[in-house]
Automatic annotation (TrEMBL):
One of its GO terms (molecular function) is oxidoreductase activity, acting on NAD(P)H. Residues 16-362 form the Enoyl reductase (ER) domain. This is Alcohol dehydrogenase family protein. InterPro entries: ADH-like_C (IPR013149), ADH-like_N (IPR013154), ER (IPR020843). It comes from the Bacteria. Pfam families: ADH_N, ADH_zinc_N. It comes from Roseobacter insulae. Keywords: NADP, Oxidoreductase.
Length: 369
């Protein structure tokens, strides 16, 4: 196919509110380097990293919850997720699904013409387990809020699935994040896992992936979304933040503790969550949308032999495993809504409002219902 010289793209010019994202109809189409492939983007999912990077939320000066607005006192020198500033201009968007339309000289030629999902973690492929040599697609390099994007050929994973591009674009960030959390917490079939924010992208992925491991899953979610979350078959559904969590758990599952808390919310409810961990329990976290500052009684941590794990950089095998789960139908997409690429501002506003269940996706051209 003929590759156009320019393309439609949303470009982040600086940290700020939605106005920092500018839509261009004549942005230069990238060309693959020798190790890269060029992907014609079919769909790109939204995630918290996009919003948090754009707003400047990763700055240590910020103590509030995730917001769509610009964070105060944040400049270009403030860090991204990895602790270092990103460079502008930047095309964001990590959750890319599309077709490989060109390959570099050292890239795998078998990828040409294949539908692929992008593994979001950028690695030094001579030292792939080194967390200090990682970056994130759409953060440390341009991503998928555009008609075309490039990525190292080892990050382009062929996927054989009847699902649409938009449905597949719900998986890369949310589901790999969730699987990484469960790996770090060593979740097994005998565990009872309490999932916060269970109606969101990562939350709904946690429910499915923990259930896939044979664990019993208890969900915390807004009661207006319980019917949607119930489709994932948790053993119990509770309100988003019960005033008496132990009593609610006991009524729902016959015990007032759990072995694992998988948390992406943080904020004021953190202390309550820690209080329901059994002795030897594990807390795993990969987000803090309700706020990063929490209260922790260190006596609870050590006297109850608890284990806390943060989860960000994933081992390389996690994404390959996720693709196999998709191909075998072991997980299903939770596609809430799609927007045309040019309506990214509206898509991010809907994403931050959290009135949806699952994931929001942008697609070049006309969105699907």
């Amino acid at each position: 196919m003929t590759i156009p010289e320019t393309m439609n793209a949303f470009v982040l010019k600086q940290h700020g509110g939605p106005e920092a994202l500018e839509f261009h109809t004549d942005w230069p189409t990238p060309r693959p380097s020798p190790d890269q492939v060029l992907i014609k983007v079919g769909a790109c999912g939204l995630n918290n990293t996009d919003v948090n990077t754009r707003s400047g939320w990763y700055s240590k000066s910020v103590t509030a919850a995730t917001t769509n607005a610009a964070q105060p006192d944040v400049g270009e020198d403030d860090p991204s997720w990895g602790g270092a500033p990103i460079s502008f201009p930047r095309i964001q968007g990590a959750d890319v699904v599309g077709e490989v339309v060109a390959v570099g000289g050292r890239a795998d030629p078998a990828l040409m013409g294949k539908r692929v999902m992008v593994d979001c973690w950028l690695r030094d492929w001579d030292d792939p387990l080194n967390r200090n040599k990682t970056g994130y697609f759409g953060s440390e390099c341009d991503g998928g809020f555009a008609e075309y994007t490039v990525v190292d050929h080892r990050n382009a994973r062929v996927v054989d699935s009847p699902l649409s591009d938009a449905e597949l674009a719900t998986f890369p960030c949310s589901y790999s994040t969730a699987e990484g959390m469960l790996c770090r917490a060593q979740v097994e079939k005998d565990d009872t896992v309490l999932v916060t924010g269970a109606s969101g992208g990562v939350g709904s992925a946690l429910v499915q992936l923990a259930t896939r491991r044979g664990a019993r899953v208890v969900c915390l979610a807004s009661e207006a979304k319980h019917a949607d979350v119930a489709r994932l078959n948790p053993v119990a559904l509770l309100p988003r933040a019960p005033a008496h969590l132990k009593k609610a758990l006991n009524a729902a599952i016959g015990r007032d503790t759990v072995s694992v808390v998988a948390d992406i919310v943080g904020g004021d409810y953190f202390e309550t969550l820690i209080d329901v961990l059994e002795r030897g329990g594990r807390y795993t976290c990969s987000g803090a949308i309700a706020g990063p500052m929490v209260v922790l009684d260190l006596r609870t941590l050590y006297l109850r032999d608890l284990t806390f794990t943060g989860s960000t950089v994933l081992p390389p095998h996690v994404f390959g495993g996720l693709v196999s789960y998709i191909e075998q139908g072991e997980v299903k997409p939770m596609l809430a809504k799609t927007f045309p690429l040019e309506e990214l501002h509206a898509a991010q506003a809907a994403f931050v409002a959290k009135e949806h269940t699952g994931n929001i996706v942008v697609v070049p051209g006309t969105a699907h219902p």
